[in-house]
Request: fold
Amino acid sequence: MSARKSYRIACIPGDGIGKEVIPAGQQVLQALAASQDGLRFEFQSFGWGGDWYREHGEMMPADGLEALRGMDAILFGSAGDPDIPDHVTLWGLRLKICQGFDQYANVRPTRILPGIDAPLKRCAPADLDWVIVRENSEGEYAGVGGRAHQGHPIEVATDVSMMTRAGVERIMRYAFRLAQARPRKLLTVVTKSNAQRHAMVMWDEIAVQVSREFPDVKWDKELVDACTARMVNRPASLDTLVATNLHADILSDLAAALAGSLGIAPTGNIDPERRYPSMFEPIHGSAFDIMGKGLANPVGTFWSCVMLLEHLGERAAAQRLMQAIEAVTADSRLHTRDLGGRAGTAEVTAAVIHRLHPR
Ligand code: ATP
Ligand code: MG
Reply:
């Protein structure tokens, strides 16, 4: 008998539909624990985000990271509020956690789930399976730069894409290792070294260097612009991709749309060294247009819960949840509006839970 395990999960619903999909994710995880011996979750919720900002002038408390530090994982909804500038919500909460806990690998799987009318189905086999690895700690979003002579005709402003050898080496190594663990052992290194002549050239050099540690991984290099076309025209030629913070941000939104909806796609902000808790979240934002109406698709959150379980080493539970999700997407009566259906958040959640207790 394996020891009874109880995982401490921090839940940060954040703003907008985050407040709807994260409770749905908790319900699904509870149902999973109820149906599997030895698996337990203790949830602790944190009401950070836009409302917290209106009350306290910051998106999360100064000692917020301390409160999260002892957790096994974090389930995050979304940060974004029409009344608060985007860079405040982003830097004040999500990026604070990603950077505070050095979650340097952002991992975004894309598959065409059963029953989903994905734009990509027209050009790809249904078993399309990509993982995009995004550098999550530096690069274009390092926050380096500034403005001078603000408002004057001579005003200058810079956003410096800052890359370190250590930062590039660790994300390359993570991506090669991930590609090596997947059946096709195929990695595409996304670059823009034809136009960006310093950091991206180092990025390319480090790819060559790290590749020598992984002789069994087939890899190639692709310019980011060409990569967007390749995702549409030759999708099956891709498997694992690694790209910088900005490039992967764009490519993964494209991937999510090609797979059918922003509402489905999951992501993990991972500290591969496991010094700190990793954070899992649907890739969609706060979507205030549908907030409070019970219309939000919770599948992106459920799939993020699958990634969370895999990260915790609970592979059987992860597999069971993924099967329940796929059984639900396969039934078009259980599609939410973003997928062209009429089901609501509660109905989809109940259907997934039902499939976790088939008897
Ligand atoms: P943010 O500013 O926080 O990024 P947003 O308003 O830009 O939020 P997104 O979540 O990025 O919204 O998504 C864009 C649109 O896609 C939304 O306005 C919404 O209509 C739709 N959408 C996103 N996520 C979902 C979901 N889970 N279920 C249904 N529709 C969704
Ligand atoms: Mg958005």
